[in-house]
Amino acid sequence: MTILQTWLIDWHEQLDYRHPRWDGDLQQQCDQVVKRLRILLPWAAERHGAFDEFANELASLKRQAEAATGGEKPPRRVGVSCTCGHTLRVTLDTAGVRCPACSTQYGHSEALQLPLAVRRAA
Ligand SMILES: [Zn+2]
Hints:
The chain is α+β, with helices and mostly antiparallel strands. The protein contains four helices and four strands. It is 51% helix and 13% strand. The protein binds zinc ion. Zinc ion binds next to loops.
C-alpha cells in the first residue's frame, strides 16, 4: 500500500503533477492509488526509467498478498441455530461444536444440518 503510494508520488513528480492526495479509509485510498497508477501506466511503461523495478515490486506485492490471503484465509463461518435458540458459529469443515448455552454437543454433520440462524433485522 505505502509502496504503491510512493510510486505514484514519484510518477507525479516526474510528470510535474501536483502531489497526489489520499482521501478516505485505507481501502478507498488503495482504490485511488490503483486507479491512478492504471491511468499513468502506459506513460510509465514508456518513459519511466525505473519501470522494471516498479513491475517487479508490483509482482512481489501481488505474491505477498496472495500468500497472505490464500495461506491463512479464515474459513467462512455460518451461524446456525441450536435447538435451544442459541446461535452457533460453525465453519464448513468444523469437527463439531458445543452449544455454550445448553451444552448440547454436535458432530460435524449434525452441526451443518442445524437450521441457519436468521439474522434479526434491527
Ligand atoms: Zn443450545
